[in-house]
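Example 3.2
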Amino acid sequence: MKGSDSVGEIPGIRGRELEALELAGLKAIVELLDWLPKRYEDRRRFDAFPAQAGGGAVCLRGLVIDTQRKGFGGKGFYEAVIEDHAGGGFSRLTCRWFNMPFMQKILATGHEVVLYGKPKESSGRVVIDHPEFEVVSEESRGIHLERIVPIYKNISGIPQRRLRELIFGALEGVDGDSLLPVHDVDPTYPRIEVFREVHFPGEMAQSDAARRYFAKEEFFLQQLRVVWRRARYADLSGRVLGKRTRLLKEFYESLPFDLTGAQKRSVKEIIADMREPRPMNRLLQGDVGSGKTFVAMCAMLLAVDSGCQAALMAPTQILAEQHYLTFSKWLAPLDLKVGLATADRREEINEANIIIGTHALLYDKVGFDDLGLVVIDEQHKFGVAQRGKLIQRGVMPDVLVMTATPIPRTLTLTIYGDLDVSVLDELPAGRGKIISGVRVKPKVSDVTKFLITQLEEGRQVYLVYPLVEESSSIKASSVIEEHPKWQKRLKHFEVELLHGKLPAEEKESVMTRFREGKSEGLVATTVIEVGVDVPNANVMVIFNAERFGLAQLHQLRGRIGRGEHKSYCILVTDGKTPEALEKLNILADTIDGFQIAEEDLRLRGPGEVLGTRQSGVGGLRFVEFLADTRLLREAREVAEEVLRDDPRLESNPHLKAWLLDQADVATQ
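Structure, written as tokens:
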């Protein structure tokens, strides 16, 4: 068999199994082999039956000594009592499957099983609900017991044990020479052996090494795309902007404060880019409150002074309106027209020099005369196609993307390898100190008393909750439920409600009143995470703080400490898990966004930290290796070597075709 042959060539495969594999998108042998294990169970030894609930998931081997169906209708469940028969002991636990009546046809008294799940306590018993399980027998022990066993993501219609047998059969019969990748990143390691070790390792170290090999393959392709895109962008003919600096100088002289050293350095880098005959393609990365908006203003003034328009696209209406107010205020002395374009508002769009907007900028209702600079704020909130659509509204415009989400330094190469990067690594002078603290189930009266002392001094406060409305499935508080309670507790002050489900006009009016000091308290969801700039607001209480990620908590905290007053961030939690307390204490101990990002990476792993919308990361399978800087650099070096030796990839048409297929909209 060859890797390109149909899975129907696997000896002993049945018709319904062939259909199931094809429905899962696994039509060729190599595609089945690429269905890698999601985890492994070391079935040479098993965990001891737990005497009590708690701890992590366990892998157990036992005998079903009793089964019965309980309950009726939609509330019924199937129950099996498992005894530690194989281990020679008499420990027992109960497994339950809810709303799955067919289980009585699959699992019966006398079956020997291997099961995997997390024990919990129920009515004084140790139970595992919906464990992964497998019935074992003497006839099928070869690759299912007494070894390290692969566990796969389920394919409907094929039991786990049978899927393992099909993959084993494919590995036994396939011609290893037919499994070569589009580019072999490590010729010393035969690819057929890598497949064998990733599926059926003799030791866990072998599976780790095999997964690292495949990760390097994947990172090579990802880095090749980045290097290729960067080279293509450098070859594009753009327009030379930024020669004239009159507006920039007048703006700088009108400021009542000095820019930070990092801001000045970034502006110089942007000027140098804009004066090049190729389009600028730069990332401005800075922590919350580091002054990215003023750097963006400088770039946009350079574009306007060169005779063209500049546009800034923000992900939310609140953020776009905040930018519009900020730009209008600071650019008023220069007699420039600043326009606003959102789904609900159009302000001064005609003949505007600078247009601030949301996704509305992507459509023809907003006309551009000559778009020369595109600025994209919180760029990770947009997809590649959306960014590309705005860029295509100009003629080879310069592009500046901004993010206030610190990316761990170890991941910058992966995400932004095709961009030039400017980093704002210092905060403007005059910012008040932020004191953060973790409070486990504090008394509401104590929190209220502290808030009143701050409000009586003329300050404003945010009260942040994770939910808009109560939820039967999530144990957390909601703004709709808590808002009237805070109105009563803070009855001498104006306390308003803000969340994403409010009509746009109502959200705008609520934020305007808070910004102007007409209300003192804001009970809100994470809709305030970006774009809210109220220097007088110096207190933020985040309830159910354990439900938020570190990066999001840091973004929320960035809404305070924007004025001269000492600020306070109170992280309220139930304190039920040590992991949650560790996370919150990290935030309390530092305001350095990059350090927080590194800790977030350590705690949650790259996949959770980055999400799936980051450019070039969404499709990666081996995100656990993204923190491996050495592996990333090795993959980058191979990619650079390939393009250095063969810039047009004439010797590898398959690789070239793949690259062209992967090309981003922005560079097509």
